[in-house]
Amino acid sequence: MRIGIAYDLKTDFQAQASGPDDALEEYDSPTTVEGIELALRSRGHTVTRLGGGRRFLAAVLESPPELVFNIAEGHGSRSREAHVPAVCEMLRIPHTHSDPLTMAVALDKAMAKRVVAIAGVPTPRFAVIESARELASLSLEFPLFAKPLFEGSSMGIRKNSRIANAGELDQRVGTLLEHYHEPVLVEEFCDGPEFTVAVLGTGPTARVVAPMEIVPKKIAVADFVYSLDLKRGANWREELEYVAPPRRDATFLRAIEKVALDAHRALGCRDISRVDVRVGRDGAPKFIEANPLPGIAPGWSDLALLWEGLGRTYEDLVNSIVDEARERLRLP
User: Fold this and answer.
1) What is the dihedral of CA 66, 106, 311, 226, to 10 degrees?
2) Domains and CATH numbers, the chain
3) Is 198 helix (H, G, I), strand (E, B) or coil?
4) For the chain, what is the largest distance between any 2 Cα atoms, rounded to a whole number of angstroms?
5) With contact defined as beta carbons under 8 Å apart, do 1 and 48 qualify?
6) CA separation for the pair 188, 273 (Å, rounded)
7) pLDDT digits over 204-250, tens only?
8) Neighbours of 155 (CB within 10 A)
9) Rg for the chain, CA atoms, rounded
C-alpha cells in the first residue's frame, strides 16, 4: 500500500513554545517517525512523510495516500488530536486510529471519565477545577491527585501530583492553573498497583493484547506517582520495572483487562488504544484514562516497552495497527 505518516515533531513548535518546561512533551522525535517508516517498509509498503498541520493538509490534497498512519498530536486546542482524523474524514482518506469524536473526548479526561462511567466502568471520584476558589467546596477524600484536564504524555504530572492535604492542594492546583491555562482534574488517589493495558481492534473485535504493570523500585506502591520526572530521568530503568505480562493472579488480571476493554469500547476507540488502570483503595481496578493515540517511540514509550516485554518486535507493533485498520476499512 501507499501509506503516508501524519506526525508532529517537537521541532515544529520550538519557535513558539512557551510556558512550562514540558510544553512540547507530547510531540514526537524524528527517531519515532523513522522507526515507523522502517517498520512499514519491512512489509513492502511505500511510505511518505506527510507531517502535520498545514503541511499535512497540503500534502494530502496534492497526493492522497491509500492510508494515513496517524500519530499527529495536533496543536492549539483541547480537540487537537482530532485535527488529522477530521481532515481525513472530510477528504475520505482512510486512516489508522480513532475518529475525531473519540480523539477529542478521550483527551478531555473528565469527558472520558463521564462516558466510561455511564457504561459502568469504575473510575475514581473526581472534580474539574477552573479556579482556585472552587477548592473550598471540594468534597473528595485525601489523598488526591491533580493534573491538567486535557494534556497528554504525563504533562503536568510530577512527584508532587499526589496531594495529602488542603495546603498541598491549593499550591499544586494553583501552579497547574497558572502554567497550563486550562482546568485541572482532581481525583481521589488510587494507592494500589498501576497498570497500562494495550487493546487492539474495534468494537466487538477489540481484545486485550496484555496489561503491563509499572512497578516502582525505590518507593512504596501506595506513594507511587508515574511522573514525568521518572520518565525523563537518565536512570529510569533503575527506578522502574515494566512487567508484561504481570506476575499476578489470573482472576485479578482479568478484572484489570475488563476495565480496559470496556473503556476502549465505551469511548469508541479504533485499531489500538492504551488504557491506564490503577487499583483503588477498595482493592478494585479503576479506569484512570485512555489514550487512543498512544506514543510508540521505539524502546521508550509504554506501548513499545509492553510489546518488548511480550517478546514481540517493534515492526509487529506498527504493522498490527495497520492490519487492524485494513480489516476495519476492508482494504486489500
Assistant:
1) 140
2) 2-97 (3.40.50.20), 106-121+191-329 (3.30.470.20), 126-188 (3.30.1490)
3) strand
4) 59
5) no
6) 24
7) 999 999 999 999 999 999 999 999 988 887 788 899 999 999 999 99
8) 21
9) 19
DSSP per-residue letters across 40-97? HHTTT-EEEEEESHHHHHHHHHHS--SEEEE-----SSTTGGGHHHHHHHHHT--BSS
The closest of 168, 150, 167, 151 to 159, measured between CA atoms, is 168
The type of residue at 230 is: L
Does 18 have pLDDT greater than 80? Answer: no
User: pLDDT digits over 249-276, tens only?
Assistant: 999 999 999 999 999 999 999 999 999 9
For cell 487492524, the residue is 324
Q: How far is CA 27 from the centre of its chain?
A: 12
- Is the distance from CB of 140 to CB of 126 less than 8 angstroms? yes
CA atoms in the 13 A half-sphere facing the CB of 172:
23
**79 CA to centre of own chain:** 14
Under a CB-based contact definition with an 8 Å cutoff, are residues 107 and 80 in contact?
yes
**How far from chain centre, in Å, is Cα 206?**
17
- For the stretch 156-194, pLDDT in tens is 999 999 999 999 999 999 999 999 999 999 999 999 999
pLDDT in tens, 106-161: 999 999 999 999 999 999 999 999 999 999 999 999 999 999 999 998 999 999 99
DSSP summary character for residue 36: H
The H or E element spanning position 200 is: strand 194-200
**pLDDT band of 17, cuts 50, 70, 90:** low
